[in-house]
Amino acid sequence: MIKTLVEPPLAAPVSLADVKSHLRFDRADEDDYLAALVLAATTHVERRCDIALMTQTWRLFLDDWPCGSIVSLPLRPVREIAEVRVYDGEGNAVVPPSASMVLDPVSDPARLHVIDKLQPLKPVNGIEIDLVAGFGDTANDVPDTLRRAILVLAAFWFEVRGSATDASALGMEPAGFDRLLAPWRRTRL
Predict the structure, then answer these.
(1) Buried-exposed string 50-81: b where 16+ CB fall within 10 A, e elsewhere
(2) pLDDT tens sequence for the chain (189 residues)
(3) Is the pTM of this model over 0.70?
(4) Cα–Cα distance, 169 to 173 (Å, whole number)
(5) The domain 6-53+138-182: what is its CATH number?
(6) For the chain, what are the domain ranges?
């Protein structure tokens, strides 16, 4: 399953003012750099946890329906399935009736139960699922531990830039960072 971002979030879960306050840094000459660090830290947290922090729309591509009737969705929290398209042999999109699918957003991972499967005739990426994921539209909707993880990581990267004596230190994360993410990470076998 391939996923691509269709509509990014309209706001960041941590503002420039938040990170500057966390760092006790009041100069404006590093604002662009700090904003870039917040964006990178947000992306890092989202990828480590398979999570969408702020409301955003993603498109999933499948070649065919999985065996059985359940599609496990790779992001969380899933708020809604915006649209499902199944392609015929000529590349025309067919939208199955919404009654033929039921979203289970409570399961982890969230699941889409497909009751009546319309078979794709396009051999590659014959199914597209657009889903809306995220905790909400504002930073206050994002759990505090995840916001704190972004602050800690962005601050760490800001403070250690150019000062690492060991090349491996550049890829390090701050102490306690994993503990902030632990409740949100999926366990994989």
Answers:
(1) bbbbbbbbbbbebeebeeeeebebbbbbbbeb
(2) 999 999 999 999 999 999 999 999 999 999 999 999 999 999 999 999 999 999 999 999 999 999 888 999 999 999 999 999 999 989 999 999 988 999 999 998 899 999 988 899 998 999 999 999 999 999 999 999 999 999 999 999 998 876 655 545 556 788 889 999 999 988 766
(3) yes
(4) 8
(5) 1.10.3230.30
(6) 6-53+138-182, 56-133
